[in-house]
Design goal:
Nucleotidyltransferase, domain 5; single chain; five-stranded mixed β-sheet; 12 strands; alpha/beta
């Protein structure tokens, strides 16, 4: 946990963990959904709630939504607020980790949201705010497949691509908490696609949920394919390339459409190049992968990575698996933070 002048979080956590009625709050704050869990001192979820992230009002609207969802979880669990020992938050960014603020997220209309100060003031317990992928790798380390690994990387392939890492047992944060922005490593030096960040050739531009449709349209244009009779991808998109989605590409591949299989194989090559960058940078013994694109298309994502990564990485290839914590990996990491299992110093 982040030490601050209001609390001594670790000592408080150790004190309360000895009691049988201690609970932790874990929060996964995304651009689409806000999710909250209430967990016991062993990390077992007691209550899990979810609702769409508020998109109107002011920063106070978001804080109020978080507080209300926590209070609702407490009521549904039939426990007392005094039994809460800590709050962990895995959030979209960018963040000011030292102050515990959400700064200027691109997909929700709020600026400078003082999440940690307000939650600590309201509930009277320590709160910790980290990047969602960093929080996820903490969840993997303490509750998932990474328990026996000192060198561990978690990667999300979802709307975007991001990561979190442990090296020699140390959680990597960086000066601003952005040490493992692996989605913005380059996998195509020609830079044929532009990333959402504005830079060329980034992994995220080719293999994320938002990037895959752009890659599909690039291939369609290159091959001169224009009609729905030529590929199931265009048929499912009603003949309109602008309506192609990542889901359409993978669904067409599952139906053995030739072009879709070719595109998925190319996605696999770009993913393998990105994974190779991760392997050579961090030398992990385990890589776990999550995020909606990977979780809904496990074989189509994993098999090409395992097939091609040896062509790009110089370090020994680690085990590469889908996270066993599935869509709850960030929540488990947030719970670990709330319980004081991972101590964050800034």
């Amino acid at each position: 946990m982040i030490y601050n002048k209001l609390f001594l979080p670790y000592s408080l956590s150790i004190l309360y963990l000895g009691e049988s009625t201690s609970y932790a709050v874990g929060i996964d704050l995304g651009a689409t959904n806000l999710r909250v869990v209430l967990a016991d001192k062993n990390g077992k979820f007691k209550i899990k709630l979810s609702e769409p992230t508020v998109k109107t009002g002011t920063s106070e609207s978001l804080i109020s939504q978080i507080i209300e969802l926590i209070e609702r979880s407490i009521r549904q669990a039939n426990i007392k607020t005094e039994e809460i020992i800590g709050i962990g938050i895995g959030s979209i960014g960018p963040l000011d980790m030292k102050r515990g603020w959400l700064l200027n997220p691109p997909n929700i209309p709020f600026r400078d949201v003082p999440i940690v100060p307000r939650l600590e003031e309201h509930f009277g317990v320590p709160a910790t705010l980290l990047n969602d992928c960093t929080t996820a790798v903490i969840g993997e380390k303490y509750f998932g497949a990474g328990k026996e690994h000192d060198n561990l990387v978690y990667i999300t392939i979802s709307t975007g691509i991001g990561g979190g890492a442990y090296v020699d047992g140390h959680l990597l944060l960086g000066k601003d908490g952005n040490a493992v922005e692996v989605g913005h490593t380059v996998v195509d030096a020609e830079g044929r696609l532009i990333c959402g960040c504005g830079k060329k050739g980034h992994w995220e531009a080719y293999c994320s949920g938002t990037g895959i449709p752009k890659l599909a349209r690039l291939i369609l244009e290159k091959k001169g394919i224009k009609g729905p009779e030529e590929t199931l991808i265009l048929k499912m998109a009603k003949g309109d390339p602008s309506k192609i989605t990542a889901k359409i590409v993978f669904e067409a591949a599952k139906k053995r459409d030739k072009l879709a299989l070719e595109i998925v194989d190319l996605i696999g090559r770009y993913n393998a190049a990105g994974i190779a960058n991760v392997i050579d940078a961090y030398d992990p013994s385990l890589i776990t992968i999550g995020g909606s694109v990977a979780l809904y298309n496990e074989e189509l994502i994993l098999n090409p990575i395992r097939r091609y990564v040896i062509e790009y990485a110089i370090n020994r290839i680690p085990e590469i698996i889908i996270t066993p914590l599935r869509e709850d990996v960030v929540l488990y990491g947030a719970v670990a933070l709330a319980l004081g299992l991972e101590r964050i110093f800034m």
